[in-house]
Design brief:
Layout lengths: L1 E6 L4 H13 L3 E7 L19 E5 L5 H11 L1 E6 L6 H6 L2 H22 E3 L2 E2 L7 E7 L23 H20 L3 E6 L2 E2 L8 H11 L3 E4 L5 E3 L1 E2 H14 L5 E4 L4 E3 H15 L12 E4 L14 H6 L8 H15 L1
Parallel strand pairs: 1-2, 1-4, 2-3, 4-7, 7-8, 8-13, 9-12, 10-15
Antiparallel strand pairs: 5-6, 11-14
This protein binds nicotinamide-adenine-dinucleotide.
Catalytic activity: dTDP-alpha-D-glucose = dTDP-4-dehydro-6-deoxy-alpha-D-glucose + H2O
Organism: Leptospira ilyithenensis
GO molecular function: dTDP-glucose 4,6-dehydratase activity
Length: 336
């Protein structure tokens, strides 16, 4: 039995990842370290309550002493690092915590992993040769695209929001621990995720919630911003693959080749709800769509070229946006 530390497992992606990962890897004990900020919710992990190979620890990834004790106590052999401040709008209002959690927190984890697994640069302690640090990052580090082109692993970084800048900073610290100390790291940069358990502040849960409550459904600007949407379980499968079969020091872009603009997304959700839960007045939910002032610095388009993970690691998105959004709406309706 090998102990793996997962950070931020009570958040949206982590809580979809954990049940899948624990079931798939029967020889792992998984320790979920999460601070339970406003974004973390243990309710998202109720299916793991009492699981013999799962343990929850409440704590801050910036807490050096606690992390050091955890590595020793649990004999941690791998890290999958999700914990972050993740909402762009919040990073505009309060950037400081983004720099602290995303940059300093990542640094603390890397340094403790290095101290526990290695005795000097490029020299692993006996038995720790395969210990790996997987860093979960975002395509937002690449900045914005015009109407053409895709982000690949070699696209220069050009982050535009405090959130993406802090994730870019964390990616660089991860990179430096590989090049300077020989730490076994892999970074994944993923496009926008959607699916069950996402925090209500994000676009898709907001659209579903506002629709059902009869309130205006807010859409930024003219609704023309484009994202490359990936169903969260496809992301989880990509992370599991990259953790087990990725090449040390490499980065892998993960994206579903599902570019959709916000107008399409909002209209699609309204159409699904019109069918599954018609409005009492017989009108379409689309009548609630309301355009609001755009987010400052709002990137126009993100889109991922996933060729590297598809060809080298044999990953492929199993859902397209239309199949995934149907499942997502069903989940939110079942929760009501
Ligand atoms: N959501 C997306 O579309 C998306 C896309 C690509 C990459 N990512 C990345 O994936 C990761 C997870 O994203 P998410 O959407 O699940 O985020 P989330 O905001 O839903 O969850 C983040 C989790 O981290 C925890 N956390 C925050 N600060 C912490 C700290 N100091 N110490 C310990 N735990 C802390 C929170 O309590 C929460 O459970 C992030 O690193 C994010 O940058 C997200």
């Amino acid at each position: 039995m090998k102990s793996i530390l997962v950070t931020g497992g009570a958040g949206f992606i982590g809580s979809n990842f954990l049940p899948f990962f624990i079931e798939k890897n029967q020889d792992y004990k998984v320790i979920n370290l999460d601070l339970l900020t406003y974004a973390g919710d243990l309710e998202n992990l109720h299916e793991l309550n009492g699981h013999p190979r799962y343990e929850f620890v409440k704590g801050d990834i910036q807490d050096k002493g606690m992390i050091r004790n955890l590595f020793q106590k649990e004999d941690i052999r791998g890290v999958i690092h999700f914990a972050a401040e993740s909402h762009v709008d919040n990073s505009i209002k309060n950037p400081e915590v983004f720099l602290q959690t995303n940059v300093i927190g990542t640094f603390v984890l890397l340094h403790e992993a290095y101290n526990y697994w290695m005795d000097k640069p490029f020299h692993f302690k006996s038995g720790y040769e395969n210990s790996r640090f997987l860093h979960v990052s975002t395509d937002e580090v690449y900045g914005t695209l015009g109407t053409e082109g895709l982000f690949s692993e070699t696209t220069p970084y050009a982050p535009n929001s405090p959130y993406s800048a802090s994730k870019a900073g964390s990616d660089f610290v991860v990179r430096s621990y590989h090049h300077t100390y020989g730490l076994n790291v892999v970074t994944t940069n993923c496009s926008n995720n959607y699916g069950p358990k996402q925090h209500s502040e994000k676009l898709i849960p907001t659209v579903i919630r506002k629709s059902l409550s009869g309130e205006p459904i807010p859409v930024y600007g003219q609704g023309t911003n484009i994202r490359d949407w990936l169903y969260v379980l496809d992301h989880a499968k990509g992370i599991d693959l990259a953790f087990h079969t990725g090449k040390s020091g490499e980065t892998y872009n993960i994206g579903g080749r599902n570019e959709r603009n916000n107008n399409y997304i909002v209209n699609k959700i309204c159409e699904i709800l019109d069918k599954k839960k018609p409005k009492p007045d017989g009108k379409s939910y689309k009548t609630q769509i309301t355009y609001v002032a755009d987010r400052p610095g709002h990137d126009l388009r993100y889109a991922i070229d996933a060729t590297k993970i598809e060809t080298e690691l044999d990953w492929k998105a199993e859902e397209n946006f239309e199949s995934g959004i149907e499942k997502t709406v069903d989940w939110y309706l079942s929760k009501k």
